[in-house]
Amino acid sequence: MTATERNTDVVHAERFTDPGLHPHKLRLADTDPQAAKRTERIVTLLFVLSVLGTIGTLVAYVAVPPEGPTSSVRLSTLLLGLGLAVSLLGIGIAGIHWAKTLMSDHEMVQERHPMRSSDETRDGAVADLNVGIAESGIGRRGLLKGAFISALALFPLTIAVPLIGSVGGDWNISKFKHTLWKTGMRLAIDPSGRLIKAADVTVGSVFHVIPDVTQEYRESHEWITEKSKAVVLLVRLKPEDITSEQGEGWSYDGIIAFSKICTHVGCPVALYEQQTHHLLCPCHQSTFDVANGAKVVFGPANRPLPQLPITVDDEGYLVAQDDFAEPIGPSYWERLK
Q: Is the pLDDT of residue 11 over 90?
């Protein structure tokens, strides 16, 4: 760049002046005391609504505990969700409305300065903060201040009470070692519960399978937990394509069944690629070879999927020979591999 060009740039830069801030526009609450009072009441009511939402959440947790039949769990979840929503929205909307209508909205400009400001600048910043606190009205609006503090103080109870209530929960880890599957239990399609005959399973087809239990048990809260451990993916291959010798005799005419619970962190493994016989976990891309005992061929999982030994009964229905030979799902403190 020549000296002439640099001088030209300087001249052009001098043509532009700092436009400064736009003229400040007063809000209705700044000029009308009645409007300010009305806004204060609205904000206070929103904080009170948040308090009521918190109380409602605690009442719902005690009155409708998340246990028992499925309908009770769903109702409890709905009530807890509504209570939390009202509590959080009350605080959030009240804070936004307060900031936009009552707190000071004067624009302030602070020039850039070294990281450590002078004592005078620091004192000035503290003074500005005190002015902002005073102009927010929190000091002279006692009712609003009380509602604000009450909403913030009570909201943590919506998290703390359920958390404390669950501290003494069931820590029996032996339940991870067993599922509902037992000798002679029939395989059923998830979620319809229709039983599966070996003749219904064609080569290359995939079935999502659950144990055959009574309708009454399927409506219980216990079923939700037990089903999550017992879900199975059933695939039919050509018998000659099965290369694994592990669990020999556990399949029937190319029909094999493996746990759907990934051995990495427990996501449902359900993406099957027919040509490669690979089974993919969508969470972290762990890949298992169904034709070779569901051994890991890619990804962070470090164990094969447990195989469910199956056969057929006298009527041709697929049944379990026994439970899984090893615990399903990811590792835990008594099982590192």
A: no
Q: How far apart are CA 132 and CA 70, in angstroms?
A: 52
Instruction: Determine the longest span between alpha carbons in the chain, in angstroms.
Output: 100
Task: Name the β-bridge partners of 271.
Answer: 280
DSSP string, 88-141: HHHHHHHHHHHHHHTS-----------SS--HHHHHHHHHHHHHHHHHHTTTT-
Measure Cα distances from 56 to 29, 32, 88, 318 in Å.
33, 36, 13, 49
Mean pLDDT, residues 22-35 taken together: 83
Tokens of 301: 């999982």
* pTM of the predicted model as reported, rounded to 2 decimal places: 0.54
Long-range contacts of 71-77 (CB under 8 A, 24+ apart): 71/219, 72/221, 73/221, 73/224
Question: CA-CA distances (angstroms) from residue 286 to 53, 141, 237, 247?
Answer: 42, 58, 21, 22
36 contact partners, CB below 8 Å, separation of at least 6: 29, 30, 101, 102
State whether residue 14 is helix, strand or coil. Answer: helix
β-pair partners for 234? 207, 257
For the beta carbon of residue 106, count every other beta carbon within 10 angstroms. Answer: 9
The C-alpha R_g of the chain, in whole angstroms, comes to 33
pLDDT digit string (tens) for 83-96? 999 999 999 999 99
Confidence of residue 195 (pLDDT cuts 50, 70, 90): very high
In angstroms, the Cα distances linking 133 to 36, 93, 128, 136, 219 are: 17, 20, 9, 5, 56
Where residue 193 falls (left for φ over 0; alpha for ψ -120 to 50; beta otherwise) is left
Rounded CA-CA distance 320/315 in Å is 14
